[in-house]
Amino acid sequence: MRNKYSVFSLIKNAFSYHENWQRAWKDPAPKKEYDAVIVGGGGHGLATAYYLAKKHNMNNIAVVEKGWIGGGNTGRNTTIIRSNYLWDASAGLYDHALKIWEGLSQELNYNVMFSQRGVMNLAHNLQDVRDLKRRTHANRLNGIDAVYLSTEEVKKFCPIINTSPDIRYPVLGGTLQRRAGTARHDAVAWGYARGADAMGVDIIQNCEVKGIKRNGDSVEGIETTKGFIKTKKVGVVAAGHSSVIADMAGLRLPLESKPLQALVSEPVKPIIDTVVMSNAVHAYVSQSDKGELVIGAGTDDYISYTQKGSHQIVEGTLNAILELYPIFSRMRMLRQWGGIVDICPDASPILSKTSIKGLYFNCGWGTGGFKATPGSGDLFAHTIANDEPHKLNAAFNLNRFVSGDLVDEHGAAAVAH
Amino acid sequence: MFLINCPYCGERDQQEFKAGGEAHIERPKQPTELSDDEWAEYLFMRKNIKGVQFERWNHAHGCRKWFNMVRDTSNDEIKAIYKMGEKPPAQ
Questions:
Q1: Is the pTM of this model over 0.90?
Q2: Which residues of B15-51 are buried (b: 16+ CB within 10 A; e: fewer)?
Q3: Can you say whether residue A80 is alpha, beta or left, with left for phi > 0 and alpha for psi between -120 and 50 degrees?
Q4: Partners of B11 in beta bridges
Q5: What is the nearest CA distance from A304 to chain B, expressed in angstroms?
Q6: What is the largest distance, in Å, between two alpha-carbon atoms of chain B?
């Protein structure tokens, strides 16, 4: 039986010096066979397992993770959550996720620290202004909250931004989605893991997939470092390593894996109470509850699995940050890291069946997957359980690269690539 | 970040270069005969290898010439560099 977290459990455990908290999830050895196996124990994979168990009554399932859960991109992103995408299909997908975020802490009985502090996107040239206005209208037609702000309104909403007309890329305006914000990334993985585990899902860490066994056009199981696991359904949620897993099944994907960097500063007192993104100069910043500035940089242009990234990318981002926020000029950076993001040619994800029966892929989230975690898990669970996509992820099929029906969100949707 | 030995200019910093993706993807000889599946293969599907990969690079802020590179994407180690049109080294 899983103990519920509450103020009473906190007090009770305080009396025993917090040494007797129940384990949040078990550490089982893999069974011989499961009804479904999720490859990848990041946020999306754990959410998929959670919704498979919760909504589709599939409890004999496992999540296999080569490292530790939430140790990949889930623990390496800037935690921005928003749904202000241009196209109808994307708006549906990301706003579905945002709606789940709004009640997620209560649902999971785990504080994911979801904070709707607003996300502001800046315009620095006339084309930006036109694009952002167009996107604001598109968002509102899709029922997503969005407002366009003048330069003065930008300054009022975030007073530390330098709105002087004399800077290299002056702020000409911006958009604001007030329902958008941030969440604590680790808590999302842990909350979903705890919830899935409570419903009987086996979360198997340090278990790397080495091969996918096929019988003709159907999946029979997976070879792992902890032995063979028989299963008829495999859902791959492996982010940057999706192509590596696909190759094991003889499947080709339209992905390129590149390092994406982020960095945090030393912690300081509250100075910025929202998230500000700027695509044109490629800088986005928010402040964590610990007080660190969380800064997102761009991807390198070459394929790499090194989780490092190039120095000049960070330098470019910090140049832009300093021009927009001169007050940060004395800040020191504490940590920098890179995650491997799998980028689709149309900058939209793939949540899809494949040509192999029982093999499903959830990948291609590129630089912006964290925000979609709950929605992605929910829709991917639906796709696996029913062997059919949900109407919200039908457009994000693998076949769109053959039919040409792409969901082109490159540059059009406030996506900072 | 790493150094790249441009076959025309010598060793330079990686930030002078632009990555051009997977090498040796042949442009269809008969574009009008291609099926949608074959177009998808040519335009979108990529090997995206973790390990030794053949790729194209351009010395964008130097001689602006294209060349090929063999690089291990798991540690960014460059194995070989050869000019366009030359035979790729055996790996």
A1: yes
A2: bbbebbebbeeeeeeeeeeeeeeeebbeebbbbbbbe
A3: beta
A4: B5
A5: 5
A6: 43
- The kind and range of the H/E element at A260 are strand A256-267
Q: Which residue among B43, B44, B53 places its CB closest to the CB of A303?
A: B53
Phi, psi of A206, deg, nearest 5 = 50, 40
CB A360 within 8 A of CB A390: no
Handedness of CA A410, A416, B3, B6 (dihedral sign): positive
A255 contacts on B by Cβ (under 8 Å) = 46, 48
Residues A230-246: pLDDT tens digits? 999 999 999 999 999 99
Interface of A with B (CB under 8 A): 241, 243-244, 247, 252-257, 300-306, 308, 310-312, 342, 345, 401-404
Helices (H), A149-202: 151-157, 185-198
Do A76 and A156 touch, CB atoms closer than 8 A? no
Nearest CA among A139, A141, A147, A140 for reference residue A121: A147
Query: Could you give the 3-state DSSP secondary structure of residue A231?
Result: strand
Choose among A394, A348, A142, A164: nearest CA to A255.
A348
pLDDT per residue as tens digits for the range B55-66:
999 999 999 999
Torsion sign (Cα): B68, B72, B74, B77: negative
